[in-house]
Amino acid sequence: MKTMVFTEKELLKKGPYQKVLDIIDFYNEATEDYKFWSSDYNMHFGYFSHGRSNPLKRDSMLNEMNRQVLKRLGLPSSKSLLADLGCGMGATIRYALQRNPKLSAIGVTLSHFQVSEGNKLLGQMRGTLLNEDFNVTSLSSNSADG
Description:
This protein has 6 helices and 3 strands, in the order ααααβαβαβ. It is α/β, with parallel strands linked by helices. The mean pLDDT is 81.
């Protein structure tokens, strides 16, 4: 994997379109490392909860973070829609859908690769990943419950 590092000065010289392309390239290339970081393809920080997660097992803490986020969202037990903006390959969405069969979920990421591979991982679950910029999505206002 090639590493792309840009100084602030270099980024300011680039137009907005080129900056987005650089971000997409970064996500496409970084996705190769997701499996190394987490067997579930989580790409976020973990959460230690005594008795629930093991600080020596990364996936334990990463999935505890997913659990904590869902708990704090307090989604109703009836059918709800979860939106994950910047979803990567949809690990948090898969975690949520595995634990709440009434839930539907939509994820948004700039990476074509993440959308393709993430949707394969979702399989028949009630979720989908969209190739969109989370700043400007096709989701209507107030369409998600969390």
